[in-house]
Automatic annotation (TrEMBL):
UniProt entry keywords in alphabetical sequence: Antiport, Endoplasmic reticulum, Glycoprotein, Membrane, Sugar transport, Transmembrane, Transmembrane helix, Transport
Family: Belongs to the major facilitator superfamily. Organophosphate:Pi antiporter (OPA) (TC 2.A.1.4) family.
Identification of the protein by name: Glucose-6-phosphate exchanger SLC37A2
Principal subcellular localization: endoplasmic reticulum
Amino acid sequence: MKSPLAPGVRFLTSFSRDSWYRGSILLLTFLFYTSYHLSRKPISIVKSQLHRNCSELIPPAGLNISDNETWCDWVPFDQSNYKTLFGILDNCFLVAYAIGMFFSGIFGERLPLRYYLSFGMLMSGLFTCLFGLGYYWEIHSLLFYAFIQVMNGLMQTTGWPAVVACVGNWFGKGKRGFIMGVWNSHTSVGNILGSLIAGVYVSSAWGMSFIVPGLIIAATGVICFFFLVEKPEDVNCSPPQHHSETEPLLQNLRSNEGMINGSVTTESAEVIEEHAEAISFVGALCIPGVVEFSLCLLFAKLVSYTFLYWLPLYISNVVHFDAKDAGDLSTLFDVGGIVGGILAGLVSDYTGGRATTCCVMLLFAAPMVSCGIVFHEPFVPHAGMLLLCGGLVNGPYALITTAVSADLGTHESLRGNSRALSTVTAIIDGTGSIGAALGPLFAGLISPSGWNNVFYMLISADILACLFLSRLVFKEVQGWCRTITQKNGYQFDR
């Protein structure tokens, strides 16, 4: 008698060859971009170690501190302008990232993604390690750290357009919002792991807070070089169908052509040939929805990155936690971001309203951000508040940078041009990165006048992000109303 296959083997063989490849692409790109964010996070944790309140610390034996009140600080961050200097470091990275992102998409469309990603991760690892080596080499030059931040910012731009383009090559529209919502949790997972790893070393030898993440991202670069498959066609897998299903966002942005006496006319399906030529920058801007979502992301990312770079320092200054505890507590914001990204993807898939989902979450985010004012002095960061705030702030940011970018990058007007995805992604995320640069900069300039003013800035940014989506929200609501009317009319006719 022939024995049946073992349950584990039956489970493994139940998946097709295509499914295994698609699963591996999701896993690999998740790992890659987790390492990108993991290597960005240490500086926000180390800030509170570079400038401390030395009066609360016990000086080493034999050290005369009578005329040196900043003996425990790291030069040049030992002066009263340390917040401004931190803002300069943040913006060296973020401005370079924002500028480089617009060019990164162009390169990503024209270079093999595997080589491009591998090079970017190896170089990013190098510059992250160099920042940490400044501790062991006892470098106290602001210019050194600023240069490292600029170069690291440029290298980090290789990541996002490339991983989104790769995932877009493998997955059609379908449940893209949910799939990419889960997949996009790599941003928060990377932030959490970066905070925890940096927190282990920050109080003893802060240089290792950079060196360890730098080695991790370099190692993932090697993995990318050996295992990444860019397109299904490269391994004889079936390509995804980008336009076989109804696309509410894209259809609601069109005119009402084809709507005659309540009936909808349809065109016969056409086989669209792939374009060999990559889309131009101006051509990508002309895709309906790209400009609105880009401007919305500018303000959404301003809020998200202000929290990313300044939340640990805010907790340390206001609640008087040490650097490790402040970093650990700030991870709750990123945990909320994971849930928010998945929820935003699910809701937008079910309703077909990407813009409306983002707008509603941003509207609820504004009062949650104001809780930072309500609980100020003294401020006890409640876990629930940080989780909810993280979900509402990062949910729209995650949805726009993933599912919306992929939707617009495979827009029907492109007529099958699969080489547009990286450019569209770079435009949207590059515009958002301008906000990511401005947020920490403004926080550094405004925070000396009081943290309340920083929160007022964040609330205003949330409201402006909603306003830029108002036209798209109107179109989506109009489309829903039209669909309901048609269904009711059909039922009445029956």
